[in-house]
């Protein structure tokens, strides 16, 4: 069986990846409909060698669509996703709009696929930083419950979309040419710098990105009171988020046992040979769907603790691939 599939935000960084991954994974697409904002009306994208015309996203354009991928920002999702669900489509949304809605499942298919079955027309895909972390810690949590998580992220420019990469590259050129760089996407110059400021600060001095990691982790693991503290940092890397994760477990957890558990986990690759300087690197993870883990060691500051370095492509598994995997689960499990 094949399906009519829509992509909202197809001209953006994540939407373009969804288009590519649907083709790579041979998702059963009968008809593809491409949507974006009004300014992209009439543009064309290529899918399986065929040109597809981009149209402005409107409720009427989704009549007869089975699955819709939303990667066009929160306001668009809030306005249009319920309209598409009313018309019988299942929405897989990448924005933060629906993630904490109690009626919307928040899903990483390798971790909580059964939550998809409860959908009421909208399924949410987590923040890219949350995915990179949970792909690492959820397999460990399943064999030794987690008591506490402290995580520091090192997030790429593409986490702010395609414009983030463009700004980073222009800033790098300006600095190397002796010019004063300008910034618009980021709060300061990102080139040759590190910004402890991802998204917006709240009243408690945590950013919305940091609170997303806490709240989404609790929801996906079904642990509403799990202590999670995050510090999110933007670094001058085009693609791939890296994270230093410090985890306290209920019982002792040896690094060797953790490596065995992670080596058997779907979608995870253990790369942990420090004697040969082998550990996950952002540039190596770019373009891949797996999450890479290494530097697995006892955390000497936590009881029953481990420290782990986790890296993943934020545009693929952190966004587009996870969304396509949700759609694959919808199809294979009969939850559409």
Low-confidence stretches: none
Largest sheet: 7 strands, mixed
Our measurement of the CA-to-CA distance between the termini, rounded to an integer number of angstroms, reads 12 Å
How many helices in DSSP terms?
A: 8
Please state the second-level CATH architecture of the largest domain.
2-Layer Sandwich
Strand content: 15-25%
The CATH superfamily of the largest domain is Dihydrodipicolinate Reductase, domain 2
Percentage of residues in helical conformation: 25-40%
SS-based class = alpha/beta
- What is the chain-wise order of helices and strands? EHEEEEHEEHEHHEEHEHEEH
How much is the radius of gyration in Å? 20 Å
Can you give the mean pLDDT? 96
CATH class value of the largest domain: Alpha Beta
Overall number of strands: 13
Shape: globular
- How many domains is the backbone divided into? 2
The name CATH uses for the topology of the largest domain is Dihydrodipicolinate Reductase, domain 2
Question: Top keywords for this entry?
Answer:
7-stranded mixed sheet, Rossmann fold, 336 residues, 13 strands, Dihydrodipicolinate Reductase, domain 2, 2 domains, alpha/beta, 6-stranded mixed sheet
Structural notes for this entry:
With 336 residues, this protein is α/β, with parallel strands linked by helices. It folds into two domains: 138 residues, 3-Layer(aba) Sandwich (Rossmann fold); 184 residues, Dihydrodipicolinate Reductase, domain 2 (2-Layer Sandwich). 29% of the residues lie in helices and 24% in strands.
List the helices and strands and how they pair.
Layout: E1 3-8, H1 13-24, E2 29-36, E3 44-47, E4 50-56, E5 67-70, H2 74-86, E6 90-93, E7 122-124, H3 128-141, E8 146-155, H4 162-176, H5 208-221, E9 228-234, E10 241-249, H6 255-263, E11 268-270, H7 282-285, E12 291-298, E13 305-312, H8 316-332
Helix pairs in contact: 1-8, 3-5
